[in-house]
Amino acid sequence: MILRPLALIAALGLPVAAQAANRECAQSPGKVIELCVFVDQGQAFYQVSRRGVPVLAPSTLGLGFAGEPRARYTALGNARRAAVDTQWEQPWGEQRLIRDNHNELAVTLTGDTPLNSSVGVTFRLFDDGIGFRYDYGAIPAGQAVSVTADHSQFRTVGAYQAWWYEALGQERDEYLYTQTDARRITLAETPLTMKGENGLYLSFHEAALVDFPSMLLAGDGAGTLSARPMPWPDGVLARKTGPFTTPWRTVLIGESAGALADSRIELNLNEPSRIADISWFKPTKYVGVWWEMHLKKTTWGSGPTHGANTANVERYMDFAAKYGFGGVLVEGWNKGWDGEWTEHGDQFSFTEPYPDFDIRAITAYGKAKGVELIGHHETGGAVVNYAAQLEDAMKLYQDVGVSVVKTGYVKHSGDILDENGGKQWFAGQYMVRHHLHAVEVAAAHRIAIDAHEPVKDTGLRRTWPNMISREGARGQEFNAWGTPTNPPEHTVILPFTRMLAGPMDYTPGIFDITHGKAEVTERVQSTLATQLALYVVLYSPVQMAADLPENYEARPDAFQFIRDVPTDWETSRTLAGEIGDYIVVARQPRGGKDWFLGALTDEEARTLGQPLTFLTPGKRYEAQIYRDGPDADYRTNPTALVTERRIVTSKDVLTFNLAPGGGTAIRFKLLN
Amino acid sequence: MILRPLALIAALGLPVAAQAANRECAQSPGKVIELCVFVDQGQAFYQVSRRGVPVLAPSTLGLGFAGEPRARYTALGNARRAAVDTQWEQPWGEQRLIRDNHNELAVTLTGDTPLNSSVGVTFRLFDDGIGFRYDYGAIPAGQAVSVTADHSQFRTVGAYQAWWYEALGQERDEYLYTQTDARRITLAETPLTMKGENGLYLSFHEAALVDFPSMLLAGDGAGTLSARPMPWPDGVLARKTGPFTTPWRTVLIGESAGALADSRIELNLNEPSRIADISWFKPTKYVGVWWEMHLKKTTWGSGPTHGANTANVERYMDFAAKYGFGGVLVEGWNKGWDGEWTEHGDQFSFTEPYPDFDIRAITAYGKAKGVELIGHHETGGAVVNYAAQLEDAMKLYQDVGVSVVKTGYVKHSGDILDENGGKQWFAGQYMVRHHLHAVEVAAAHRIAIDAHEPVKDTGLRRTWPNMISREGARGQEFNAWGTPTNPPEHTVILPFTRMLAGPMDYTPGIFDITHGKAEVTERVQSTLATQLALYVVLYSPVQMAADLPENYEARPDAFQFIRDVPTDWETSRTLAGEIGDYIVVARQPRGGKDWFLGALTDEEARTLGQPLTFLTPGKRYEAQIYRDGPDADYRTNPTALVTERRIVTSKDVLTFNLAPGGGTAIRFKLLN
Questions:
Q1: Mind listing the pLDDT tens digit for each residue in B279-290?
Q2: Any bridge partners for residue A45, and if so which?
Q3: Comparing B272-472 with B479-503+520-538+558-672, is the CATH topology the same?
Q4: What is the pLDDT of residues A521-535, one digit of tens each?
Q5: Residue A166, φ and ψ in degrees, nearest 5
Q6: What per-residue confidence (pLDDT) applies to A171?
Q7: Is B519 a catalytic residue?
Q8: Which residues form the Glycosyl-hydrolase 97 N-terminal domain (chains A, B) (predicted)?
Q9: CA–CA separation, A268 vs A210, rounded Å?
Q10: Residue range B220-225: average pLDDT?
């Protein structure tokens, strides 16, 4: 036997008993969260508690690399601490001023393989959760490494219920959530939200996902979740060049579901903006040549039923201008939509409109009315084709005055092919790179991106504020053709799961609830009031009014709320809620003194008493209320809507009588 | 919130405290091994001890399926027990009669997901180890299911050293082994062999790998190994149709390294032969037009340097006939070898010889001399191309009297593409199916397969006795061009690791040790005596004499051993050995009264005293000894060989003075 260098080190590297010097602890600013990191028996661990209640049992840390045996961490050292309490301003968002109040603990793990010889781990402790990331700063500059394992664990303590879906394989994130004992999780997407018998709510996610694969979480049947980054086709998790840091892995910890929704950890763990001037992007509402295609009234493809024809688009522009919408989305405008486009996305041209779509006439027409074209780039998952045209595609849109582009990566077979024909997961490192590259090219052309079938949001809008919104969940489109369509609980699960990641372009506002379908599971499963409340509950800086113009003009009573509701906010608060049951959200418009409120329930009728303490004391407001009619029910009478006006103050308590599948939307208009 | 059926079951499925009825135990026939299986906290576990010493701590069981939350096992039931003590005969092999002495414990796990509602687990306990497999017999016939997780664990207790290599990605198994603390295992191929501070030797592997992905083992840094079946390109581990059973997962447990090598669990856990008449396959030695290509004297490709020309092949046939070899392997005989063939294996034709290779003339020429052509099918990893020609290819060989075909799957880029262009791992379910299909087509044509770049052996030769040998490790070919070539320890690691799986076509017998290379790490790193001993140590029913004819004729003293050594055995015993240090193996020829012995050391000189108690008492033998010369050293004087004859009996003790990198080969010829 030859003892090779690595084996020699292993033979000498006897387990080191945990010593005081091998353990470092820190608390969050309000002493709510405590975290310790330590080395024992060759492994590095962290553990977390909240006000003395164990949240995470000792959980392993670190990455593994190709060509190296698993590291044995022999010491913990070089602890550095920092306390931060600052605030910063979002150029647009659900909250203008964001407080960043955390204590930082950074340590170095000393390991016995070359790439692990000195691993930095930085923890940030907030009162509502933690984040940590690895700093492989000791890997020499330019050295290429392959990450083949992520040993990051989250070992929960006690019994939890989880809201999750199986993140199987390579498909996009468009599933219904299921609720189970958290020990039954197989492989779950994040944010992964759980509710404990101990009264705690947890959500696991990551922040600042840049040039690294998106992380899934695998359950072990006993409450431990392990990081599972989406691999390259050859099984390597990440290809990096030294030195590098990883994304932040985050755990939100609160005593209510709303505490998770109102956490700003996600944004705080991202870097400040790299875009000097984002003033060209204005949050807006938009309509579009879109729902009519989902209803099969017109088509994406060319021919006599082609939806994206100049006359039709100008009709939408007239409507938009009349009712104050800033944009008109048009899908199916460019060559490539004919035939099974999800299987040959490489036929898409992003610079050649169909002949009946006169892009310059349309944009000039809109400009005269103060309405922008919302651009659209459906790639069919053919990212190589899209990347090759990206510069020209963005330049065209910039030339004609488009400032927002919705992108799409629909691929029914689930296969996204790279330059080498390799099948890429939808959010592996390759696609993470692609999406950010698209955003950067777009930024150079003063274009904002609203990505559908995206990599999940990890707060990158702070750094790239033209990365404005995304899909990444089952949106309203499933209410056109889903089997089944979204059940009422879906939109009271999203605020505590998917929405923790960031804005979602859910496209609310379908007024023709039944759209000709007899079965409730084949059409929108909500009341009309719910469709209004969604504009407040599901935040996005671009909000679609998804239905057809004629359906809005048929219900001017309800439509008034959509006309009034803004898409940019001074502040936002989740006033009440339980995951999958109900939610009440209030938001104050940016630069305004009004407030808006949205309340939703699941399939059960529910009466909620809501104190209005968020209103400015001493002020009078006209509450313009859009609520379910007395006999409303999403199954039998979805469009029964009552509008009423009441004078209220911060001392009042409003009672919401939510119908099954129902909701309430309110504008609180400041009177004096 | 809607409680869907699964969630409802979860809510009711409270953890069940372990009860007597939820625990079943069994012992091996000699009461050496004890195993218990139980259900606790919703999970199913097994644990193993040997004479009261814990070997495996409670380790989880079960598979996971797409579309199902993780099972909660709520009860253990229907325990069935059996005791087996029988023996069966191998048609050829390292041991004619195989004793199968085990106790069986089969239980049913009751779970709360549809596919896990009733999971059978069958354990077989031998005195030298265990095997277990799952029986998903309750899945309805014809129901397609996707296995997405394998929860099988092996939780070792205490400190072990392991001999392993990193099973990264999709490459074949041709690596040097490294020795480390077993906790440093990242992802390892099996057989995975370990030596404990407690004196126990363990080896983890599987048996009867049919229509299921090959299993790798992932370490967790703390001694737990978890099954990691090689996935399909989309991440699914196995696509099965109900009902089905899995391969056996095996653990060999012994008090010596040799005990692992002499275990027959692997064969015993395979099914009896499905080939009624295998008499047409005769174990044999062979030479070949092969090493001269590795030395770049001739080429696989066509042209003036083409090795596979009729005249050259007939020269090898003359040599084979003269010295008693049964076959001549010829590589490079068929169209497709020109250019970068590993990247376009789809250009291979398996029915069209190059014009200078007259296959019918050659085989007729050989037949007249009693020498067979050993066929060769190099696929370049293009399995679709190979599968399409398989029937015709085997028919051609059958027509010309070929009964052994060496196959190859060399693919330097590591990508094996399936019919859909998907990149398949070299031993995922797709390739497991492919290799067995090739063996079955071959069997129909009375052809035996010696697969290179194969799926690892799991004892399938019992069921398909035309699956005779394989590569699946770093063979002698690396001594032609490896960087570095195989160090001396390699061949004293293989018997306790790779060889536990089954026969290996290592191709020993290189006499021109240096083959013109000055650096020891660029040529064969052994003495000449070692090259002889390998014929005994590394079992294969087809053994190559890999060197050039002229090199054998230059050393008739050494060559005599190769001429004498058989390739089929009555019995085999590992007399001594330590992993990576040394080994002594004795084998008795099938149908003969002689014995053969091979001894090897690593890079250290070693003196071993070997009692000859395996010889028949009262009989006299002429020991024809081939040993290192007194000043032999693999670095400085590799070809110093002493041959001597001594009369010995079973009461004698032979002392082997093994040079660095040296060995000893002995034929014990019965005298009376």
A1: 999 999 999 999
A2: A38, A60
A3: yes
A4: 999 999 999 999 999
A5: -75, 115
A6: 65
A7: no
A8: 27-272
A9: 15
A10: 97
Q: How far apart are CA A295 and CA A550, in angstroms?
A: 14
Structure tokens at A91: 């150029």
pLDDT per position as a tens digit, A611-664: 999 999 999 999 999 999 999 999 999 999 999 999 999 999 999 999 999 999
- CB-based contact, A68 to chain B, within 8 Å: yes
For residue B139, the tally of other CB atoms under 10 A from its CB is: 21
Tokens for B350, please give them: 């398996």
**Cβ pair B185:A414 closer than 8 A:** no
CA atoms within 13 A on the CB side of B462: 23
Range with the poorest average pLDDT among A544-548, B4-8, B464-468: B4-8
Check residue A233 and give its pLDDT. 86
Dihedral-angle region of residue B430 (phi above 0 means left; psi in -120 to 50 means alpha; beta otherwise)? alpha
- Give the pLDDT mean for B463-491: 97
Residue B423 one-letter amino acid: K
Give per-residue pLDDT as tens, B140-174: 999 999 999 999 999 999 999 999 999 875 568 99
How, if at all, do strands A284-289 and A542-544 pair? parallel
How large is the angle between the packed helices B556-564 and B528-537, nearest 10 degrees? 0
E strand or H helix at A369: helix A359-369
For residue A203, the model assigns a pLDDT of 98
- Length of chain A equals 672
Of B10, B235, B487, which has the smallest distance from its Cβ to A181's Cβ? Answer: B10
Query: Is A274-472 assigned to CATH 3.20.20.70?
Result: yes
- CATH topology classification for A5-268: Beta-galactosidase; Chain A, domain 5 (2.70.98)
Q: CB–CB of B608/B584 below 8 Å?
A: yes
- The mean per-residue pLDDT over the stretch A163-188 comes to 90
The CATH number assigned to the domain with range B272-472 reads: 3.20.20.70
Does A178 contact B489 at a Cβ distance shorter than 8 Å? Answer: no
From the list A657, A492, A516, A490, the residue with the least C-alpha distance to A582 is A492
Reading the block at residue A301, the tokens are 């493809």
Residue-range domain boundaries for chain A: 5-268, 274-472, 504-672
Q: Which spans in A538-657 are helix H? A: 549-553, 556-564
Q: How many CB pairs under 8 A join A and B?
A: 153
Quote the tokens at residue A324: 């104050």
Task: List the beta bridge partners of residue A225.
Answer: A154, A219
CATH H-level, domain A504-672: superfamily: Aldolase class I (3.20.20.70)
Distance CA A21, CA B88 (A): 62
For the four alpha carbons of A635, A641, A647 and A649, in that order, the dihedral sign comes to positive
Whole-angstrom Cα Rg for chain B: 25
For residues A531, A535, A538, A542, the Cα torsion angle rounded to the nearest 10 degrees is 130
For A606, the enclosing helix (H) or strand (E) is strand A606-611
Per-residue pLDDT of A339-385, as tens digits, reads: 989 888 999 999 999 999 999 999 999 999 999 999 999 999 999 99
A233's tokens: 């086709």
Q: What is the CATH number of domain B479-503+520-538+558-672?
A: 3.20.20.70
Q: Which residue of A has its CA nearest to B605?
A: A1
Contact B148 A168 (CB under 8 A): yes
| pLDDT attached to residue B423 | 86
Is A602 in contact with B151 (Cβ distance < 8 A)? no
Contact criterion met (CB below 8 Å) for A611 and A653: yes
Q: Which of B477, B489, B522, B570 is catalytic?
A: B477
Within chain A, what is the greatest distance between any pair of CA atoms? 88
Q: How far apart are CA A565 and CA A285, in angstroms?
A: 9
Give the contacts of B526 (CB within 8 A, at least 6 positions apart): B488, B491, B513, B634, B638, B661, B662, B663
**Cα–Cα distance, A448 to A542 (Å, whole number):** 10
Q: Is B375 helix (H, G, I), strand (E, B) or coil?
A: strand
